[in-house]
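Example with several molecule types.
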Amino acid sequence: MASKMVEVSVYRFHPERDNKPRMQTYQVDVQPGTMLREALLEIKAQDESFAFRHSCGEGVCGSDGMNVNGRNCLACITPVAELKQPIQVRPLPGRPVIRDLIVDMSQFYEQYRGVRPYLIRKDPLPEQEILQSPADRDALDGLYECILCGCCSTACPSFWWNPEKFHGPAALLQAWRFLADSRDQATDERLDGLEGPYKLFRCHTIMNCVEVCPKGLNPTKAIGRIKELMVEKSV
Amino acid sequence: MSIPRRRFDALILGAGGAGLNAALRLASAELRVAVVSKVFPTRSHTVAAQGGVNAALANVLPDDWHWHMFDTVKGSDYLGDQDAIEYMCREAIPTVYELDHAGVPFSRLDNGKIYQRAFGGQSQSFGGDQAARTCAAADRTGHAILHTLYQQNIRARSHFFDEYFAVDLIKDDDGYVIGALVLDIESGEPLVIESKTTLVATGGFGQVFRTTTNAFINTGDGLAMALRIGVPLQDMEFYQFHPTGVAGKGMLITEGARGEGGYLVNGDGERFMERYAPKALDLAGRDVVARAIVTEIREGRGCGAARDHVLLKLDHLGREVVHHRLPGITDICQVFLGIDPAREPIPVFPTAHYAMGGIPTDRHARVVAPARHGPEEVVPGLYAAGECACVSVHGANRLGGNSLLDILVFGRAAAKDILDYVAENPNHRPLHDRYLEPARARLARWERRGDGESVHAVKAELRKLMEDHCGVFRDEDTMASGVERLDALRGRVIENVRLRDQSRTFNTARIEALELDNLVDVGMATLVSALYRQESRGAHSRVDFTERDDMHWMRHSLYSREDDRMDYKPVRTKPLTVESFPPKARVY
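Resulting structure tokens for the full complex:
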């Protein structure tokens, strides 16, 4: 197959050496179908000091969220051929950079834990499965598939300004995932927990999250459904 | 310089399904639990499991745990331990209900029960009609289970050390395992975690092969740690090649695709599995299907210009079935091949997928090793569960859908036994600094400066070597020369390979160097074990010993790192309560 050289410019920052970040350009040999992750691995083969997170290589583990030519994406499912050169690769925006493309995601995980992302069941448990109709189960499609890559929340201006107070799109998608589950029995507590001006209501439907989600999920719609349910419950 | 210490009742290395299920039980029982994972827990490779988890719920077709047991024993080519298999198949049923109660979004049947699909090697009534035993959340079952278990651990407030790398287990003078030395990847600083009990749940080592369905992180860390404290590895020659990896790339296409009605065709457009498994066809054991594909290609009946793969056809199933039941593989095909599997067939080739072998344990997940009183003496304080362990429920070949089951059942079994152990052994044993010496020496070895080969280059060479010398079909000469080459490579890793980047902060190159040590050790265990076993059984197919030889080889292999020595121990053929299934010819 025909290979060709592409120019990839990556964000470099090493806290033990650098006062400020810089961009460094590498020439990388790519084949048709090469994904950006493979190109970055090729850079790492040239220069082992370059650091980024990655693992499964097929878009399910959510490790390699990054900002490429200004847009958040997963490197492992982004074909190099579709990117305008020179390719500019930066860390996910708005998070503290630890090294090169590796950012501190703790605030993102904190917000996720904050929505109590687990099924709450109050009735005694049956000996078998809790029955759920196919239609009720279908209500979870588009929600449970989230891989916590962080592409959405780190593309959200409201999350940039208030990462301590606003849950952000990824966490709110999971908040709705449990509200929408016919097996869950904590609707009132969940909605009470989302009250106030920040946690949920800082969403201004800018929809960057929908635009960038590598799994094609729609956090804005989920947030809208939560708001609707709140209104319904308050009448 | 002294290394900081933390103390816990239970230390769990690895945050995949086995580790998280154990952590959940222990944290819910109010033990102090530390979970160490080199990646954030939901990035563990359980997330990539697709097709489902087996349990004889009988939601779709009649079923019985005893039939599940029969299929598993037969699938193992009679190398599985029947006590452990009985335990797993019985436990499967409450285990799946418990997952539902925990929130796993299983697909549903019209009556509201959990959806179950057909998978390979499943039968009703001990070898009769096809069964439907695999409980599925579309084709994202691993993702659904892993996320749910992590979520429940949030509720249980388990203590996580995210992005910490386990360097070595710590063993005291009396042979007790009393914790591990770990590395905080972000700061680069070591930490000693003292623990009354340690569960190794670090998953598989597919990265030892060039083309694999496994993630970058699957480097056999726990297996190599066990080897380094003198625990042998069991049945390492049995490595599963999944019949349907995307040709040339390796991404997994679930067996569920065939369970939903897909089938394989060769370059002549022939449905060739009819010749290899007249009854089960495309749902024969994975070893059988993988060999059939390689045979078709070797005999010139492959597909494509190079005739180097076969095709998996799903286009006759209709868009609704393919997109609704198999949305994950639809995505994979679109992203990596640019095709819609509901319209075009998928090019596939057998791809390194799963280790049947591993750290020897009993059915309580306690690590057992040969010692004074016999071949299966408990290593006190040490447990193993999941792909890194060898219970052995998979024997020489694992059935699809039994892997998620294994991690859940034995992760939980470990937790049960750990509770008893901690009740009986309430105090920490003294941890002297000298116990840390082997781990510190290993770290120090990678701090040597100067010129040398790169980790990257040697790792690539190792992976190619394993693919060339230890693939689907094996023979004496190929493997013997493989051992020789690997022995030389091992020497180079110790002497010549150097880390250029000696920085501390999030130094992924250092982690990859430590992983290379592990890959070399598990690679050698695999290749040596394979060379010694002179028969064909399950996934181990020798062209020079084509038959199964129960007389000489119905026994487990044990590889020790010291002198690359092989020992053997008997298969446990006696189940817990039912009659033993004696070995029979394995036909599908």
